[in-house]
Every structure is written in C-alpha cells, then in structure tokens.
C-alpha cells in the first residue's frame, strides 16, 4: 500500500501547526517554579491522555519544538508542547501512565542561530530542569513502579545524561523497564551492545528484554552529509535497534507507523550498519516522507512515528516481562 495523500498531508500539516504555534509566543525564560507537568495521570487537558491504572509508568521528554526567541524556553504548557505530546506520547498511554515535565529546553532559534556557547549553557539549564523533575517524580509519584524512558532529539540528549548521572549504578536502575532514545546518536562500543554512552544499560536485542535501550534515527535515503548515525570517535558506533526486528537489526522488517490516527503506509525498516548506522525506511511512498529541515536530517521529525505501533507494542511486552 502506498502512503496516502491524506497521510502525507497530515504529516506536513501537523508540523506546520506545531511550529506555527511556537512562533506565536516568544516570552523569556522564567525562574524555576518547581515541576510543571505537561502530562501526568489525571491532569486536565493532558495531551498524553491523562490515563492511570497501567502497570508501569513512562517518563517522556519531548524534542526541540519551541520557537520562542530566547536561548531557553519558559515553563508555559504552550500549544506546541501539547501538539508534540499528542503526536509522539499519547499512543503510549495505552500501555503506561505517562509523566512528562515541562523543561526550559534550548529553542529552535538557539539551535539554528545561537552560538555554541549559548547552546552549551542552555543545554545545562535544560538538563537541570529534567533532573529536578525526575527527582520529584521518584520521590513523590513513582511508588516503586517500573519506568520506561521515552525521549526524542533534545529529549534523548536529556535522558541519556539522566541515565548516566542518576540511574546507572543506583538502586533505581532495577526499575528501568527500558529506554526509548530516538534521534539522538546513542553510542556503544564497536561490535558490542554496551559501552560508549552507557556502561551497564545494553541495547535491546529481544522484545522481552528489560533494562535496555532502543535507539535509532530514521532516513529514507542516505545523503553524503548525513547528520545522524555517525560515531563521534574511533572505537565507538552509533546504536541502531530496529524496533520490528530487535534480534536481527539488519533484517528488513515491516514497520507499523502512525501519525495521529492515520497509518503512515506499508514501510519496512532495517539498520544499515557501517559508518552511518541508521534505520533506513523503504517501501512505496517512503521517498515522499518529508526530510526537514533538509536531507542531512533525514526523517528526524518522524523518528517516533515511523515505528510508533511497534514501539507501543514493545512497551507492552517489556512491561509484562518486567512485572514477571
């Protein structure tokens, strides 16, 4: 089945709406008021569905989406945050209770026009917010439950550091159901499933495995100036775990992707391996998926959605395995 014109249009319209909403507000970053929750069980107008009663929790950190004209966003639960949470995280609410803090992320303006110094300082501020929210969640809301970490892009960067600083080697590591760290170049030792970014959180190689990480960046073609999938130093490689074929990542497997309630089409995915290890999306209509802002980024905006059905099912299986 070729991706429908309606599904292609929906992809473009959703991201246009998200960025348009972001551009409509540009207040300065504000002081830390304590945790502001974008999503939490029972929260009115929760873009993640507000569900409770699932056997495990998900802790979701959203990607770069704010177009506020400052280095860091503020703590407003703004329209673009609602939009991205509905697009990426709401579907997981079928399998886990979703908690998502608002954090003073580095904005799109800083990403594309700020100096390296601005971005470095901004990312430190953003991480401090995520760490404080995590500590609040553990102390006041977790109650010993298993947790799936879900991040994309800047959110993956935040959660990668959180695992390094607050989870690995601590008692809470036993509560890690899994970490879905997408669009963020998680590294491992070359030819291994661990090493690199994490010492003791391995790549997931089976759907029933827990305490492991799923990571990839999606592309429908491989440009010469590819941004993701390239290891930062010798001896390391960027991790690609095919969510539809964890036991054999290089195998071509059908993906179950969604954007809202629409099927993105009958695509397949396989990890390319080699110098640029990414999830290559193939099949009728794959070339029509938008590479934004340019070809080097690949399908970055759709990293979560190209395999969202597979990821939601994986969370279910991992949660069942964790509870056993």
UniProtKB/TrEMBL annotation:
<dbReference type="InterPro" id="IPR021440">
    <property type="entry name" value="DUF3089"/>
</dbReference>
<keyword id="KW-0732">Signal</keyword>
<dbReference type="Pfam" id="PF11288">
    <property type="entry name" value="DUF3089"/>
</dbReference>
<protein>
    <submittedName>
        <fullName>DUF3089 domain-containing protein</fullName>
    </submittedName>
</protein>
<dbReference type="InterPro" id="IPR029058">
    <property type="entry name" value="AB_hydrolase_fold"/>
</dbReference>
<feature type="signal peptide">
    <location>
        <begin position="1"/>
        <end position="31"/>
    </location>
</feature>
